TrEMBL record:
Recorded family membership: Belongs to the deoxyhypusine synthase family.
Lineage, opening ranks: Archaea, Methanobacteriati, Methanobacteriota, Methanomada group, Methanobacteria
EC number of this enzyme: 2.5.1.46
Keyword Cell membrane in annotation: no
InterPro entries according to UniProt: Deoxyhypusine_synthase (IPR002773), Deoxyhypusine_synthase_sf (IPR036982), DHS-like_NAD/FAD-binding_dom (IPR029035)
Organism of derivation: Methanobrevibacter smithii DSM 2375
Keyword match Transferase: yes
One GO CC term on file: cytoplasm
Source species, domain of life: Archaea
Pfam family, one: DS
Protein name (record): Deoxyhypusine synthase
Keyword field: Transferase
Molecular-function annotations in GO: deoxyhypusine synthase activity
Length: 304
């Protein structure tokens, strides 16, 4: 079958552009189109619970409102997040912000109390407010629940935040559970350790498993939106081994497969581990999540 050439026209919609990708159906354009169709179908299917994993600097990279919108619209049913994305969501909820880098030398940034994430800057003053506020929330939560699972902790934090753009707060108010198996590896984890030195407050990682397994077993079908790789991707995939694997999934990653890392593994590899079902509908798109996911989600909205 002949490759169709892509046509561009003035004022065309995102969905029209992706339709041109679909007509071409080769290389990255074809993968973006397939990912769009899988995403739209999993959102439309009322029998499919949608699990989304958030790896990499997605919240400081501008994805915060998109994640919150998906929760409000009922387009995602469960989130697995890195601790860093939770931290940066709270930093903004507490009044901080993320700034575009101005090209300063890293040692100069260090002297000014600024941390750099690629071309994103975060000030130490905002982290000082973060530390104060998160400890205030720990005081409230620990008095009520001295032993708590990670998911419950994130829920309780979300219920105490007054920020409609916070994906943590939005998830709590819409009963979308957030799991964060690597929460210790972030500023929240550091503050938890410091707080626990003189408070009776225990975080149970294993405490998440009964709730998570109940969700998996109670799902007729599960779809995955895997943004970035690493722990959040694996936790999403591995949790679904309990029920034979994901039924459909979209992965967007910049990682490469040659070194054998999970982050770079194509989704088809998950079938060998029963993390994705044989016959499942899968699409891997190699690219920057902050470019590709807004594109496919915008196009999918026209199909829903």
């Amino acid at each position: 079958m002949k490759v169709n050439q892509i046509d561009i026209s003035k004022d065309m919609k995102v969905s029209d552009l992706v339709a041109q990708f679909e007509a071409s159906d080769v290389l990255g354009a074809g993968r973006v189109a397939r990912a769009t169709n899988i995403l739209a179908n999993m959102i439309k299917d009322e029998d499919t619970n949608v699990f989304m994993s958030l790896g990499g600097p997605l919240i400081p990279g501008g994805m915060r409102n998109i994640v919150s919108q998906m929760i409000r619209e009922g387009h995602v049913d469960l989130i697995v997040s890195s601790g860093a994305n939770l931290t940066h969501d709270l930093l903004e909820a507490f009044g901080g912000a993320h700034y575009r880098d101005e090209g300063k030398d890293d040692e100069e940034l260090n002297a000014e109390g600024i941390g750099r994430i690629a071309d994103i800057n975060v000030g130490s003053n905002d982290f000082e407010v973060f530390e104060k506020e998160i400890n205030r929330l720990f005081e409230i939560i620990s008095a009520k629940k001295p032993v708590i699972s990670i998911q419950e902790l994130i829920y309780e934090i979300g219920m105490l935040i007054d920020d409609e753009n916070s994906f943590i707060a939005t998830a709590a108010r819409n009963n979308v559970p957030i799991f964060a198996p690597g929460i210790i590896d972030c500023m929240i984890g550091l503050q938890l350790w410091i707080f626990s030195q003189d408070h009776d407050f225990t975080i149970s990682a294993a405490g998440d498993m009964p709730y998570l397994s109940d969700i998996v077993f109670g799902s007729e079908k599960v779809g995955g939106i895997l943004l970035g790789g690493g722990l959040t991707k694996h936790y999403t995939l591995a949790s679904n081994i309990l029920n034979g694997g994901l039924d459909c999934a979209v992965q967007i990653t910049m990682d490469r497969p040659e070194a054998g890392s999970l982050g770079g593994a194509p989704l088809e590899e998950a079938k060998s581990w029963s993390k994705a079902k044989c016959g499942s509908n899968l699409a891997t798109v190699v690219g920057d999540v902050t470019i590709i996911f807004p594109l496919i989600y915008a196009a999918a909205l026209d199909k829903i």
